[in-house]
């Protein structure tokens, strides 16, 4: 079999002989034809049931080969799920790996991009080793892990390009030799024309223009978004026309904008060479609008494009197919003969078919031993229980058994044999339990990086105070913490709305921009999605970003980026990429419908894969930051908005002490009831506990400190074993974060068995709080609410000792 990697090379007409030129062109044509065959065969594999779904890059082959010529070691891609030809042309993927991903093969090395977790055309390169240490990113062609949400790749693209600017302009980063070579790297982005209607596209285009970063965005324009034509998608039906105002001129920075037909091979090669040189050398964002593309097989395997394209359009697409056009150009230019081209096309079909067969057989071969083992084990059990023979026979007769077929048979056999104790059943059970850990690794592992710089590996250092420790505002504790860490670690950068010049709206960064410079502490526009993307891109390239969102409410504007991209990054790449972004924000006890400040359940449900820190004061927040700055996993830290001017004692080691994540703390010991709360609500609970003590009720107050992870040491259930009563107080909606905490304590920690009464939650009302202090009082938990709820629980348990209040 021929070499699987046919990497394209740049064309330099001034130096190449005709034979060299011919060799490059023929190689490019071979890549394009192989990619087309992969699309055709891939679609067939889905329609015959071997794969679940498929989406392919047919019709975009020639421009992607041209783009690949300008892509160098150290560069980054943040792309569209139709970039398979680019992946083949750069060597990021082989044809066999493409099919292994289509079949969702989780075997080690089969799908090197996602370990069988993502559908086809979702590529990624290995940035980190198994222990979490970094590879030399300057020596490989880098591809950030693809995601499916349309336009979602744009946010991180801004950060990938911005990193090059920092590496070029901040000489303090020169020591990071494995991450950049003088900031010469270009961040390549790709997107379909219809997806340019997404808000994140416009936000990213504007951000990159403001920042002036080496971002090269290619728009594959085939005039449709599934069935919806361009006239419903884009003003003037032409995105580069819409964006003409971004074109730079002699007086104003901006973009260089190029437009080129997607079937014109020589023009594409010329445009990409020129555009990327400008982008790389001058650090100017460029936009390449690739028009007149086709989509021969339609959008995906979910339907046919003949349903919505006219006969005239289909005829035009056949005539303007980029491979057909390149073929004609090769003949007209005498680059190749008809016989040579026919031979290439014949070889390509055979090669792709063989690669597909290899991938499919390797996928089945990884399952067949398990299939045989279960058939044999269940057959042995059938000697004692004959009805099990049918399960073994059915599984044995399944020609292309999937792993789920194997395990469904094993589990059914175990269920049906529960009353039959035998050595044969024990053997199946032993096999099954051993396989459980293997399947966890295949399908559930690496939600977090879990490497040598995991937060769990950071040494715990207690805060130290002496006789000179001052009582200062909480904001000053944070400021001192940030100052110490920025002096310690040159990789730290921070950016957000109002963060730089004024030092954030609550002064946590006051004076630090003047000390460390605008490259490290930076103001941004109002653009939450790309603030998050800026952080993701920088973190992917080895820096330590703090991406600030001014208020917790505004985080909702960026939740798609955090949930779809950052939170799933480690999992969807099976740990080959990481992005240790720290999202800093503030909330709790805000007033008003639009500043209610505590949508915690929303974050808990959508940010698994990140840590969620809810410090009760700024000293605890500083300790968490100190941990996170030394670790390599992403987190959200929610500071208490009403705590910046409250007095706290400044630790002597303000930049060194650490607060471990997942460690709950007992703030006050008690015997009658366990109350769990976090953030600003803790002060309310503590105040209520003082009055309850006067009523003869002893309250044990627990601060989990982080909600993701939650109470790893099971402090909560230990308390519940003592008090037998549980109240959860938070200011999320009913059934929000409080329900999550109940599930953790009662189910996971098995706290249910210690209860002697109904557990209760005290939350905010279902609606958002009205404006003003009265609105806050009547819609969020107050001291009075806490006192009366706890008293009522004690009354329910012992009405004689605690007579009814009302």
Automatic annotation (TrEMBL):
Name the Enzyme Commission number(s) assigned to this protein: 1.2.4.4
What cofactors does this protein use?
thiamine diphosphate
**What's an example of a GO molecular-function annotation for this chain?**
branched-chain 2-oxo acid dehydrogenase activity
From what organism does this protein derive? Answer: Pedobacter soli
Picking any one GO biological process from the record gives: response to nutrient
Q: What class of enzyme is it?
A: oxidoreductase
* Function according to Swiss-Prot or TrEMBL: E1 component of the 2-oxoglutarate dehydrogenase (OGDH) complex which catalyzes the decarboxylation of 2-oxoglutarate, the first step in the conversion of 2-oxoglutarate to succinyl-CoA and CO(2).
Q: Per its record, how is this protein called by name?
A: 3-methyl-2-oxobutanoate dehydrogenase (2-methylpropanoyl-transferring)
Keyword annotations for this protein, in alphabetical order, are: Oxidoreductase, Pyruvate, Thiamine pyrophosphate
**Cross-referenced Gene3D superfamilies:** 3.40.50.920, 3.40.50.970
Residue span(s) of domain Transketolase-like pyrimidine-binding:
472-646
Report the InterPro entries cross-referenced here.
DH_E1, THDP-binding, Transketo_C/PFOR_II, Transketolase-like_Pyr-bd, Transketolase_C
